[in-house]
Amino acid sequence: MQRRARKEKSKRRRELAGILFLLPGFAGVVCFTLLPFAEVVRRSFQSAVTAKWVGWKNYETVFANTAFRMAAMNTLRFTGVCIPILVTLSLTLAVVLQKLRSGKNFLKSVFLIPMAVPAASVVLVWKTLFHSNGLLNGLLMKLGGEKIGWMTSGAAFSVLVVSYLWKNLGYDMILWMAGLSGISEDIYEAARVDGAGEWKCFTRITVPNLLPSLYTITVLSFLNSFKVFREAWLVAGDYPHQSMYLLQHLYNNWFRDLAFDKIAAAAVVNALVVLALILVLRRSWERE
Amino acid sequence: MAEEGTGEMKNGKLVRVTAMFFALMLCFTILSRAADQMSVAVVQTERPQNRMIEHAVRTSGKIVQNQELAVTTLPDQRVTAIYVREGQRVAKGDLLFEVDTGLLDEKILDQQLEMEKQELQVKDAKSQKEVSAQQRANSQAQASEQYSLSTGRAGVQLARAKQQLDEAKEKLKKFRESVDEGKAGLSGGTGTADSDVEAALLQALEDKTNAYVAAQGELRTLEWEIENAVFTAKQNAAAGTLSGTIAGELSGSVSGNMSGAASGASLAAEDRVYTGAADAEDMDEVSVETGAENEAVSIEPLADDDEEIVLDMSSADAEPPVDAESGENMPGTDDASITVDMEAPEIVPDRTGADSRALDDPDADIGDMIIEDGGDPILPQPPTQEQLSQIEQTVRKSYSQRLAEAEQKVSSAQAEKETAEAALVQYQQEQLAAESSEKAASAQQLTADVRAAQQAYEDAAIAVNEAAVTSGRAVAIANIDEPSNSSDRMNEITYEQMELTLEKLEGLKKAKGKVCAEADGLITKINIMTGEKTTDTTALLMADLSKGYQFTADITKDQQKYIGTGDLVRLTSGDGKQKLEDLPVESITADENNGELYHVTVQIPEDTFEPGMNVNLDFVRKSETYPVTVPLSALHLDERQQPYVLILEEYGSIMGAEQRARKVSVTVLEQNESYAAIAEGAIGSEQELIVQSDKAVDNGSRVRVAH
Amino acid sequence: MVKKFVREITYLPLILLAGIICFPVLFAASGVFMQQWELERNLAPVLAGAEGMAGWSVLPHAPTLRSLVELLLDSPQFFVMFWNSLKISLCILAGQTMFGVPSAWALARFRFPGRKAVLLLYIVLMLMPFQVLMLPQYLVLDRFRLLDTHAAVILPAVFSTFPVFIMYRFFCGIPESILEAARIDGAGHLQVFLWIGIPLGSAGIVSSGILGFLESWNLIEQPMTFLKTKSLWPLSLFLPEIGLEEAGLGFAAAFMMLVPALLLFLSGREYLEQGIAAAALKE
Which of B30-34, B340-344, B384-388, B699-703 is the least confident region? Predict the structure, then answer.
């Protein structure tokens, strides 16, 4: 009994120590993120200027706002298109690279470089590439094609996708490779002994074993998908072609216009969506 | 394990490279900042101030005397010694120079001899004058005698004609009465009525006749008047200058007597009168002194106008109508008009008088007069024949209306008279026709007698008029004064002048040929030389120290803007030892030849600066107080010559708050050599202006303020 | 033999892909060594609206270091921003280490009530785009009067939850037995953290540091929102402002911004990979 009590005591002490370790960082998070976010939640029910309680009116305004709907749709479409492409592409690359005997490290570095390249450093490059008189159109015309208004038509969306893929391919590839390295070579050996081919090995052994990583990779890709705004903003400014007008553009513009009520409501909605998404993903992963 | 090791090594190298990179960046940071600071202009700034703009006027000039005295001596004297030199100060009474007394004695002797000669000449002239005066008195007496004689004779004849006329009338009357008495029985009462009618007709005829005679007389008088006027006009034209004087005096003093027309004319002439009067005065003086040295004086173009005035005067004065019975009045009135005309300097009546002979004939030849005048030294420029005839015409023209009127009057009076006569004749004839033939014959005889008598009476009356006019004219002309022969007076003047010269020579002799200073002064110029003869120019010039000095200097047009008469200036002697404050500027005048130069003068108190000293003038003109003035070094001109200043402006740059120059165009209100006043509004009083910079600074140049 | 050939031939698309991925970097790098006229000729159709198509050659026709020299010697404003960027990045790194490491340690090594909720909260916050948190952060920075100071950029980033998440994964990987041994030896919680946790989790700390540096070196939205004074700007805000007339300078500046990131990336590549991989590890 005494031992148990001691154990209880030490357990409580450990809990306390853990909380103490966590506290400084958590206090900062609370201070700089949580409390202000609570304030934003409160504000989302108030009018911007008079701070009068307006109930759900801000939310109604936001949902009725065509710009918001368009930006939300674009953002969803972007994530819906990009993340699958990125995930499959990076997985393929990771598997191929995994098989290589030499040059593995070099190629890994090369593919990772875009992650290190600051967006501002390559603005000029993007502009030169995707301008209607730019390099890409020059190449197209040499091949006998037509000029495409990369930044001024629906193609702007694909520009967004390309820049996102360029930036995150290496990162996701590393993530996959980490997952691949977690799979014991013995399993493959056993499968090969059983006469399984490469493809069979991949579908039957690799993919199931990588499923836990998929959750993390998807979440991180989702996280990074927000950062594509930098490139979009640097290349196309505050009001790009509507096919690449993302929620971030909208928030930025609202913020500049001091439409705090709308931005507050939209931020709350956004946060809830993210939360819901994570919970869903987590649950689906845990069910596996 | 080995792979990890090489990885570690490689990483270590890369870390070193990274560290080196940042170190390098640090170096470049410092280097680029140093380079940047070197390229930034270091400036000094000032704030606009509230101040006056001062304009200094500085010039140097000389002290000069206010008045110069000329020392003269008689000409043709030999200078034996000069005791002064230029620039010397002399006191009153100091000996200046000396002339040769021997030569002086000779001159005196010569002068005395000359004077004796002159005296004799004067005497001759006097005796001549007495003779001519006698002659004149004689002719005057003769004329008046002639006048009384001829008028008396005409009067007797007139009286006789009158008597005859009356007798004839009486006879006719008596005859009528006898006829009437005879008739009375027959026709009862009509006789008296008839004789009454006839008497009335006769009376009318008589009246008309008298009127006719009077008109005739008037016409004659007017004719004479015209001739007289023409003569006077020509005379005046010949001595046009004098008429100016006459006109002037007339308009001045006689205007009260003048009729409206005359005063109007005189008013018109008044402005000319000034020049005329002035010139006449000049001439008076000259003629007194020199006797003959008269200039023609350019009044000629005025002569015409002046004539008119004179003529108006005479016509106005001669207005009283001349009656046949009161013919004596006429010469008197004419005399009056002439004396009014001649109330001017003596010379005028003289000259008119001199031409008395010519006046005998009303149409006297002007040429003769000019020839006579030609001998007169007073008229060096006689009017031409053409001018004279023109004058005559003008005069005649001015009278033409009156003449025509008079003639009209005469002819109408004659016509009336004739009508009356005809009426009478008709009546008488009617009477006669009603009477018996024998009675008619005698009545006709009587009537014819009356008419003849009437005619005779008329003729006699006219003859009386004519005699009165003609002989009156002779009297008038004889009464005109003879010229007081000017040569006589001139001789006297010459003598007097000689006397004066002699006096001077003797005075010089008395002073033993020494010439002394008349006042304290400074010799500024010497024109004579020892041993040379003096001329009639000034011998010495000296500054009159008693009249004070003045400072004169030249200033430029720019300076002239800032200094004016009455401004208080400071004068400093060239060596800076002497200083005078608050002296008012006396005058500032533009240079006649150089438009950029002005002369400024300042009166100097006594006993301060000496004439000839170099003196500096200082004056500071202070403007009003301007709220925004900037140093001139802050003011620049852009390529369009627009003035601007560079103000210091803070701006947020990547490098932090930095300062740069900003160009601000301004309007300059006033400026001197160190400050400029700027119109308000362009820059505030808190703005820092760049006044100095170690590098060229433009709009937008980054600058750093030096402390 | 065929198998070997197939293996060899797989390199080709990989190298091609690597080339495409590296192209922008090479592009930016070659611009540094071009002269202004060459840049203008190449870029005028894009940046100045001239006729024709933009051209580019990876190898400059007339290579020069002029732009680089001009940038390094004549542009002090570049250095102002360079050091601004570095200051912000290093401060963020230091802050993240100071606050993030203990938090990650606590979450990984201690069991206490609410731990799971905190973890979930951290993950949710980590995934929030900046624009969602922009307004709350703006409000609190305004309250603390930190707007328009470097602290406005630094402080929110210090309390970012992403590094905590990465380090948490690393700390989770430390075997419990080692810590238990230390405790039996009488070490307190702090000693265990300092003497065992940090050394064993150093790879995670370094990799999160590298990730954090790359992220903070690349910050755009935060300084743009919170910094008004130009002299406080980091390099990442300055570069987009460069036009054609300064293209040479722009390329040089972009290159100089790229260099530290690449150097750090290359020197910490293995840690970086470990850090990235750590995120993928199963919980």
Answer: B340-344
